[in-house]
Amino acid sequence: MSILSKPFFHDEAAAFEYLEGIVWGDEPVCPHCGCTGKIKKIAANPEKRVRHGLHRCNDCRRQFTVKVGTVFEHMRIPLHKALQAVYLMCASKKGVSAHQLHRILEVTYKTAWFLAHRIREAMRAGELAPFGGNGGDVQVDETFIGTDPEANQDVRSRNYVQKMKVLTLLDRETGIARSSVIDDLKVTTIKPIVDANIAKEARIVTDEAPRFKRIATGFAGHESVNHSADEYVRKDDPTVTTNHVENYFSVFKRGMKGTYQHCAKKHLHRYLAEFDFRYNLRSAKGVNDGERTEAALTGIAGKRLTYRSAC
């Protein structure tokens, strides 16, 4: 027996029951009026179109399922197939391509592509708590990938100028990463992101790039390693290193180049949310694939993504 042999991966009624337990808990909640006590489950009528998981609120008199008010609202494929996709994306360290999902789930490529973006939206944390609140270290670094269509494509420009740019902050105390897409490497672009996401009592750890000296002003401290001199860990202080954020980048790039191969800039923030999610709930922190899947399904509530907005 494999994990994918569980009933909610194959039976639609079991899939709805499983998702209801994650999203609602002990009792259903009406997504229209918020009522919790006066909800009746409507039994499926096999003589008509069977609608699994259908409920009726006696307060607002409206019908709903657990998918209403989530990223799965108006989803046209069976819920048990969507749960398979969530598990595959959460269990695969470097992601699963839409073409792979389209072959495994036996749906069209468009459907698989949109489903993957729905799942990435569910993975998006949206947390605002600043890093380094206890005076710990926060590693800050950037990486480059693909081609930025908005950048100067002059052949005389430096190579990184023509690429899409990603800024990642990594809290060493909690092991949590937070990434964002940036348009350039100017201090005026990076510093507001750093100021909004890192507590002032934190120590900033970066590489030797000159811009980080100005970006780290106002914080408790700033230390750096000199990569150009092959220094990756400070000898007199092993805590001064950016190896952890570089490790995040290595997984991110292997996934983007090896699994997804191409990503438009307008979609890059969703892929970053996916890699942030898996990194923050990695097995090294004691989280297994099933727990990671449940965490992703918990994030579906209160979010909505339409095909038009995703394209």
Written as H for each helix and E for each strand, in order along the chain, the element string is HEEEHHHEEEHEHEHHHH
Instruction: Give the DSSP E fraction (strand runs of 2 or more residues).
Output: 5-15%
* The CATH H-level homologous superfamily of the domain at 137-280: Ribonuclease H-like superfamily/Ribonuclease H
Instruction: Give the N-to-C terminal Cα separation.
Output: 38 Å
Largest sheet: 5 strands, mixed
Any idea of the CATH class of the domain at 137-280?
Alpha Beta
Under CATH, the topology of the domain at 137-280 can be stated as: Nucleotidyltransferase, domain 5
Structure summary, number of beta strands = 8
Task: Tell me briefly what this model is.
Helix content is 35%, strand content 14%. The chain has 311 residues and is α/β, with parallel strands linked by helices.
Describe the protein in words.
This protein has 311 residues and is of the alpha/beta class. Helix content is 35%, strand content 14%. The longest helix is centred in the C-terminal third of the chain and has 18 residues, at 243-260. The mean pLDDT is 93.
